[in-house]
Amino acid sequence: MTKKENASSNAVSRRDVLKTTALAGMAAAASAVGLRSHEERCLARAAETMATDDPAQPASEAPKPDAVSGATRTSFNVKPRAPLNAKVPLAKICDLTVSRIILGGNLIGGYAHSRDLIYVSDLIKAYHTEQKCVETFMLAEECGINAFLGDWNQGKMMENYWKWTDGKIQLISQCTDDLDVVKRTIDCGSVAVYPQGETCDRLVREGNFDRIEKIVTMIRDAKLPVGLGAHRIETLQAILDKGIVPDFWMKTYHPLTYWSAHAETEHDNIYCRKPDVTREFFESRPEPWIAFKTLAAGAVTPQEGFRFALEGGADFLCVGMYDFQIVDDVNIYTDIVKNPVQRSRRSIDDVDRDAYEKGLEEEEENA
Predict the structure, then answer these.
(1) Which domain holds residue 309?
(2) How far is Cα 114 from Cα 121, in angstroms, rounded to an integer?
(3) How far apart are CA 290 and CA 100, in angstroms?
(4) Structure pTM?
(5) Of 108, 131, 229, 352, which residue has the fewest beta carbons closer than 10 angstroms?
């Protein structure tokens, strides 16, 4: 038996999962418009009789329900999943082919930017069971998303996903400045690695550029593309001033059009404090830029946030999405890029998707 035949016999295909999901949705819709329970039918008949307001009919003769029930919802508006308009375009980071939308890892990892709500992290951890994570990755891949941005702690989850399914989504990982964590991040199946934004922000505040350079060297020695992340544009400028240049940048970028961006007290409510300065910084940089927090952790609509990021010059968008948001978000993105976007900087070229997917098939056949 070939490797391909063995994989197909043991792994769950993305189409199988999506078909099952679609059938479940159809069943839910059918139950919403079909026959109600015996209890509900009896109660409905009683309600219709009592609503006749016929004084000639004694109440004692009216049909009675044969059961007692609490409030029961008897109709539902089941929102069908929108059809996918087009897959996400692809582009290059060094020799790595990456989808222009990257699936963000905060939600799957249980890291919530939730302002003052104290239950949200527990909620999203409960939602993202192992099965839900697999379904999310599969759906993302069906939409053309081929990269997930996580960390080394999620390496085992990704390993299981690759083993259990025919999925090929790539892991781009963030690391801390702990050199043992950097090594674990390199070794967990990552295709690219960068020190996370908060780490770089802190190291620059401390003036510890030697540690940043050490991390960059470790990742490059592993033959992986290396990035640098930041929440503050001053961080990236300071690193650049020291002559440290990554293969790609990770920088927050979103508009300041939502009300809490202008609150007097900052409390997990703003992630790109100077979008104008950020845009100006990248106008002169040739390296690819992955913009993250493009929706300001849910405060900005995809229609506004995606266009703002693209016009500002971002090459890739890292977007945290629940499974039920993926198709809609991809459709919004592909609708925006159907026509030329007025960008503030040059755009890196797209990769031909047909050729890319054919190459993946050939690699699998030859493995």
Answers:
(1) 90-366
(2) 8
(3) 9
(4) 0.80
(5) 131
